[in-house]
Amino acid sequence: MNIFKLQAAKILSTNYPDLSQNLILDSFELPKNSEFGDMALPCFKFAKALRKSPIQIADDFISLFHGNELYESITNIKGYLNFKFSKTIYIKSVLDNYTNENIFAELSLFGKNKTMVIDYSHPNVAKNMGIHNLRSTIIGQSLYNIFESLGYKAIGVNHLGDWGTQFGKLMWALEKWSSIEEVEEKGILFLNENYVRFHKEAEKNPSMEDEARKWFKKLEDNDLDAVKWWKLFIKISMESYKKIYKRLDVSFDFVTGESFYIQFLAETIAKLETANLTEISEGALVVKFDESDNMPPCLLKKSDGATLYGTRDVAAVMYRLKVFNPDVILYITDIAQQLHFNQVFNIIEKYNPSSKGKLEHIIFGRLSFPDGQMSTRKGNIIPLNEVLDKARDKVLEILDEREVEVPDKYETAEKIGIGAVIFNDLSRGRIKNIEFDWDQILSFEGETGPHIQYSYVRMHNILERVKCSDTSEIDFSALTDEYSYELIKTLEQFSKKVIQAHDDREPSVIAHYLIELAKNFNRFYRNNRIIDAPKDVQDSRIHLVKILISVYGKCMNLLGLPIVEKM
RNA sequence: GCACCAUUAGCUCAGCUGGAUAGAGCAACGGAUUUCUAAUCCGUAGGCCAGAGGUUCAAAUCCUCUAUGGUGUACCA
Protein A512 CA to nucleic acid B14 C1', in Å? Predict the structure, then answer.
């Protein structure tokens, strides 16, 4: 906690016993315009308790601070008490806190001894990963990073879509049109092709659907041929997904697809039946909800006895609650699945009231395409690989144009391209719908990933070029310019921003904070030469940049933005 | 029909638990010791915060209704 806030709250609450220290602490805000001051206290809400006008109150408050050396000035603007801090004290107090990375250690106490399970990415096996898989994957990974940095034990789960009739379709198709060898050789795109071909031909020949169901039944009955195909699908899919996860720097603690929970289904259903939550409706086994919940029933078993998506998710939640004993479980999916998760969570909370509040569906907006819906069945998805490749190739061109000495051009271009794609997504609020647009995803100027990376390169270059003297004797009072001051004020926000990103489950908070840091740094950079500055100024500025780069780099890590040192 | 989500500058978006004159980027126009890398910085212009009510000292923010768009609504995932 900032000493300026504490001190002011203390002084005010001792003089006005009607106002508690916490009330005052909660009332502080950042002035809209930094010219007003560094911290503001709106006095309107004190008017009732003190029976005076806000302007009068602010004037009375000011008189309590005469001669206080913490504050350079305190002014009353229309009922707002605006504090300007003593710059030297403020700078020292912020930077001391950041020296030696204290701040990261302090932050990691926030979620100490807490466990968070996060279910993200979850692509459908045998389908090529497309741009539509991007959001869940990177939002999930970023939230994982954010929770972990706050000291949580984070458990990432990739709940693969590895069960269902679609595999019967593929098996039938490949038995007929191909062979194990050919599939092994040609990989996931070949699986896609056959899936598309199946649907095309099944339109003319509906009996194929029955054949597919038979094959899926064989799989459920552990038929050797069916299992052999199924295992091959998973192997091929994972090989392909791993390449993309590696590019995006995404990893999981557990890859347990839907099929993993098949073994618990009977037990899960039995538990719900024993708890009297189920009933038979129209031949199906369902859970009905209270009228006030306004939801259709959730099907656990179809009238033919087969289980569904919902059944497997209920089993998965029960398993995770039991095995990981988490404080919270996050599910990262598209908003379209909201009803589904409301149903699943509602069932779990009925069955096990102690799980209330632990389950969260973290939704994000729909991805749409200008030329209508995409669908794997029709084969018109945009492969994620292709997006990343295009981004990289465009960067390669730009690097050539710019004639900058970059040691490993291809590798650098890859990192910048990936950064652009990730930042484009994570810099907007989760809930926003996105229309896919090549120009936008490949735009590299302004508030984009490359801009964030470029600013890092500038920081890095300074530290590389200028050797700093021993940091133990830094005189921060040499940092007198407004740009340094604004930069330090932004730096101070770090913990608050990470915690806010956690509270809102919103990586874009970090993305916007990075933009803010970059903006303040670039101003600082433009206006403050470091290389030819006097020694004491140079040292203090270098020290500031060192602190900045550690915070800035940390934020990039939280989003999964690759760090580049030359570009 | 019912339910959920969204709507802020020409475009893409910020706007913290209600607080001061609603902010950025892109696009447009004008500028910056050719430098610690200009993928940068500075300036100009651009707004009835979808509309109407309500709560409040104070509403882009909270509540209600309406409009528009998106999504979901029992045997797909």
Answer: 8
Domains of chain A: 3-85 (3.30.1360.70), 120-368 (3.40.50.620), 384-559 (1.10.730.10)
CB of A517 within 8 A of CB of A559?
Answer: no
CA distances from A3 to A71, A97, A107, A179 (A): 11, 12, 18, 71
SS3 A531: coil
Q: How far is the CA of A271 from the C1' of B3 (A)?
A: 29
Shortest-distance nucleotide from A298 CA to C1' = B74
Q: Which nucleotide, over all strands, has the C1' atom closest to the CA of A444?
A: B39
**Cβ-count burial of A536 within 10 angstroms (0-12 exposed, 13-18 middle, 19+ buried)?**
middle
Complex prediction ipTM: 0.96
Whole-number distance in Å between A296 CA and B74 C1': 7
Mean per-residue pLDDT over chain A, rounded: 92
Q: What is the pLDDT of residues A436-471, one digit of tens each?
A: 999 899 999 899 999 999 999 999 999 998 876 665
- Minimum CA–C1' distance nucleotide for A36: B20
The values of phi and psi at residue A88, to 5°, are -65, -40
Note the pLDDT tens digit of each residue in A391-436.
999 999 999 988 888 889 999 999 999 999 999 999 999 999 999 9
Question: How crowded is the C-beta side of A157, counted as CA atoms within 13 Å?
Answer: 22
- In the 3-class helix/strand/coil scheme, how is A54-65 assigned residue by residue? HHHHHHHHHHCC
Q: Which nucleotides of B are covered by protein (CB under 7 A)?
A: 2-6, 12-17, 19-21, 23-27, 33, 36-42, 57-58, 69-77
| Sole residue written with tokens 């990177």 | A138
Element (H, E) at A196: helix A188-204
Report the protein residue whose CA lies nearest the C1' of nucleotide B24: A447
How many helices and strands in chain A, by DSSP H and E? Answer: 23, 13
For residue A49, what are its two tokens?
A: 């308790």
Q: Which residues of A75-107 are buried (b: 16+ CB within 10 A; e: fewer)?
A: ebeebbbbbbbbbebbbbbbbebbeeeebbeeb
